[in-house]
Design brief:
The protein is of the alpha+beta class. It folds into three domains: 87 residues, Phosphorylase Kinase, domain 1, CATH 3.30.200; 177 residues, Transferase(Phosphotransferase), domain 1, CATH 1.10.510; 137 residues, Orthogonal Bundle (Recoverin, domain 1). 33% of the residues lie in helices and 12% in strands. It has 19 helices and 15 strands. A five-stranded antiparallel sheet has the order 4-5-6-8-7. One of its GO terms (cellular component) is membrane. It is a lipid-anchor. Keywords: ATP-binding, Kinase, Lipoprotein, Myristate, Nucleotide-binding, Phosphoprotein, Repeat, Serine/threonine-protein kinase, Transferase.
């Protein structure tokens, strides 16, 4: 794949500051001295440096230090570069003897990261250098050989390898399957053991979605854990991109994007953040051009509620979100990774690139994607806007997966809209807000054009309103329809406890719009200055404004500082 240079932010020219002080330069030798001899020192010591009433004489044979004017000036460059988020990571890698590494698309090493870039491998309390005392029993059956016949190796990753196998009995009798084999010898900490347990739990819980790889069973023996899954023989999405000459057409890309967004929206509804979305982790079920896509590799996934944050750095360097490097992120980090994937789909190049891992991180934090070079001038404005709204460095302004499915670029795909957990988070914030903020949001909701309410209307209908309004029961029933073990593990239903005031009142569509909109996302849209001024006018007067009214949108946003 070709390299795409990121368009750097405007930088201040480097300014060199030379610190020096002007003093008379002493003669370099006696032959070069001025004809007038220096005054005689009463102490009997001689010196080639001119004497002064405030100067102590030097002993014979001792030359004075060079004057400040004869020393090289120290040069300082301004502005100073900010500290790199990769420095702690690289320091740990050096301590482990890994030296300087080339950028790779494996998991980002974290504090205590192991060889090969294994992420999240931190030394647990009491683990130390060995794994004495660790319980590596998972409670899985140990009769793999009785149900499956193992074959050739299909691939090898950071945490294990995958083999072809054939079912001997049960629902997969005679069918080929894939078996992921994870060595227990690599489980050197309690955390790494918990990672494997969580991966199996997530696979089992999410297996029902059409775009999630099917989970069949899990086994273990003294040496390994075996995870039996669906065999996808169509290859990786990355290979399919390369076979098409490096990029997809817009129409073909839409088919891929819709499947990715659907499965990620489902994961987020369950309270699961993948944290390693990249083309290599999407497989086709067969070699057919219209073969469905499957998401794989939940080894770095974790449970998180929409109002909580994670802080460990994991993922793959080219696809990691800025907030992950800053160690405070949520479900929006997956949307950034999807934006990078779609950028690659449409132009065949990475939006952020550098020769070193720390350079990639710096590019992610400080550079903007390049939308000027070919083929972007020939890409539709809707597609370009779609990618830009996913690659927004402010995670609060990024679209959710369900919102992305309602974007004008994908609106003609005729896909069923999934329930968005983001709605629950926003309604909870609205309920906890002051009456003034709620009134201001109601005014803002009236000023939004109908075209931008498609997403909100769909979400409102998914709550199955009664008599045109919804209450806490509607939210509870809608969530219960999608409940899995993963949702229980992530404690997503706990958010309903914070929406208790809805148990005593009903919320119509207008108020629902006021509760569910994000002022940060609205600010990211083009042309919202007029919307902001209109909403402020409505808030003050209670009626629709004319074209002559104008207020400051950013000042209005300052009135709504919650999200």
């Amino acid at each position: 794949m070709g390299h795409c240079c990121s368009k750097d932010e405007p930088a201040v020219d480097n300014i060199e500051v030379i610190t020096s002080v002007k003093h008379p330069t002493p003669p370099r030798a006696a032959s070069e001295a001025v004809a007038t001899p220096p005054p005689q020192m009463t102490s009997g010591f001689s010196s080639s440096f001119p004497a002064s009433p405030f100067q102590s004489p030097l002993p014979a044979g001792v030359r004075p230090s060079p004057s400040p004017a004869s020393t090289p000036g120290r040069k300082f460059r301004w502005p100073f570069p900010p500290p790199s988020p990769a420095k702690p990571i690289m320091a740990i890698m050096r301590r482990r003897g890994l030296g300087k590494q080339q950028p790779k698309e494996g998991p980002i090493p974290e504090e205590g990261g192991g060889e090969g870039g294994e992420a999240r491998e931190r030394v647990a309390d009491g683990a130390g250098a060995g794994d004495l005392g660790l319980d590596k029993s998972f409670g899985y059956p140990n009769n793999l050989a009785a149900k499956y016949e193992l074959g050739k190796e299909l691939g090898r990753g950071h945490f294990g390898h995958t083999c072809w196998a054939k079912g001997k009995k049960g629902e997969v009798k005679g069918q080929p399957v894939a078996v992921k084999i994870i060595s227990k010898a690599k489980m050197t900490t309690a955390l790494s053991i918990e990672d494997v347990r969580r991966e199996v739990k997530i696979l089992k819980a999410l297996s029902g979605h059409s775009n999630t790889i099917k989970f069949y069973d899990a086994f273990e023996d003294e040496n390994n854990v075996y995870v039996v899954m669906e065999l996808c023989e169509g290859g990786e999405l990355l290979d399919r991109i390369l076979s098409r000459g490096g990029r997809y057409t817009e129409e073909d890309a839409k088919t891929i994007v819709v499947q990715i967004l659907n499965v990620v929206a489902y994961c987020h509804l369950q309270g699961v953040v993948h944290r390693d979305l990249k083309p290599e982790n999407f497989l086709f079920t067969s070699r057919d051009e219209d073969a469905p896509l499957r998401i794989i590799d939940f080894g770095l996934s974790d449970f998180v509620r929409p109002d909580e944050h994670l802080n460990d750095i994991v993922g793959s360097a080219y696809y990691v979100a800025p907030e992950v490097l800053r160690r405070s992120y949520n479900l929006e980090a997956d949307m950034w990774s999807i934006g990078v994937i779609i950028y690659i789909l449409l132009c065949g190049s990475r939006p952020f690139w550098a020769r070193t891992e720390s350079g990639i991180f710096r590019s992610v934090l400080r550079s903007d994607p390049n939308f000027d070079d070919s083929p972007w001038p020939n890409v539709s404005p809707e597609a370009k806007d779609f990618v830009q709204r996913l690659l927004n460095k402010d995670h609060r302004k990024r679209m959710t997966a369900a919102q992305a499915l309602s974007h004008p670029w994908l609106r003609d795909s005729n896909q069923a809209m999934p329930l968005d957990i983001f709605i629950f988070k926003m309604v909870k914030s609205y309920i906890c807000a002051t009456s003034f903020k709620r009134a201001a949001l109601k005014a803002l909701a009236k000023a939004i054009p109908e075209d931008e309410l498609v997403y909100l209307r769909t979400q409102f209908s998914l709550l199955e309103p009664k008599n045109g309004s919804v209450s806490l029961d509607n939210f509870r029933v809608a969530l219960a329809k999608h409940v899995t073990d993963a949702m229980k593990e992530s404690r997503v239903p706990d958010i309903l406890n914070l929406m208790q005031p809805l148990a005593y009142k009903a919320m119509g569509f207008e108020e629902f719009c006021a509760a569910a909109i994000s002022t940060y996302q609205l600010e990211a849209l083009e042309g919202l200055g007029q919307h902001g001024s209109s909403s402020l006018w409505i808030f003050r007067t209670g009626r629709k404004p004319g074209s002559s009214q104008w207020r400051n949108w950013h000042w209005y946003l300052d009135l709504l500082p919650f999200y």
